[in-house]
Amino acid sequence: MERIKVVIADDIKETRENIKKLLSFEKNIEVIGEAENGEEAVFIVKESRPDIVLMDINMPIKDGIKATEEISIQIPDTAVIMVSVQGEQEYLKKAMSAGARDFIVKPFSEEDLVQTIMKIYSIEQKRKEGISAPKKKEEIISKVISVFSTKGGVGKTTIASNLAVSIARLTRKKVALVDLDLQFGDVAIMLNVSLRSTISDLIKEINQVDSSSIEDYMVTHFSGIKVLPAPVKPEYAEYITPAHVTKIINSLRGRFHYIVVDTSNIFNETVLSALDLSDKILCISTLDLPTIKNIKSGLDIMESLHYSNNKINIVLNKASEQFGIKYKDFEDTLKYPIWSYIPEDSQTVISSANKGFPFVITRAETKVAKSIMAMSKELTEEKKEEVQVKEKAGFLKLFSL
Fold this sequence. Notes:
This protein is α/β, with parallel strands linked by helices.
């Protein structure tokens, strides 16, 4: 058996020395580094790639939770065991959400420490053996489409849900729908899917999640799309970080042809992580002054973030000029053209939501359904063009060799 490489991260030097002394009696364990703060721990782990990190929670510069989060995402083959004098449930929950494999409360005995290290190392070795020889599969070029608005009540979730289903029906490809409205997400209700697991369950084991295992945390809708529901309780949202969102979307890439993300209606860091990774952002608006004002502010922020105009598509929901605002005035204010018009059809939309059946399936003949299907067609045709460009570039590169 190879020696287990361990890094100790604790801001108290005496504690690090005591742990090193405990582990020095084990011939199968080798301490290869130590850090006195979270930032230093991340750096050392990146350089040394140990098997195990013993991570204290309360450290200066960067605490153990943040450091664990970074390590779990950037160096997933390194397992973190959290070490702390605080054994409350809240600390345990935060540690596991950040990606820690286990939790030891100080003071602990040599036996407790060694057994925990050996147990986690054994689990990790079995996991690595299980994924060491993946089956060869066709490469999937994914497209991430985020449905976003700076105003609530504009039909964002309705559009995202029906769009995902429509794309799946149109292309017969694999489609994922992620509910990133972490506090008040309604995708599961909109599609009437059971909450077998949610994004909260996924992040508890985020360090072990990759493109081959992420579907285990998703719910299958009868249309064939896979849904990752929002947390069941609003307070769970605080445990989901931008790094988690990045890991989730990147894990979905290569597994799904299309990834539709239903975001919340605020510019927080988790939403920005999704928007940054998106190939297309569908910005949903209605023709009322408060919404237009908020959408304009949102577009200004996206411009300051250097999002290209090609990345952003304006979708006008409940489209009608009968209330005094003309389409041209709307476009002049936003300085963006309207990419798609979705007509008002409250009866179809509300009935669909109450029954939990997408109207692109049950009421495909309606104008509102046809508008969503037209959006799906344009988005998927754009992807075909992108694939052709990439394939052509690859051919030219090969030809030039």
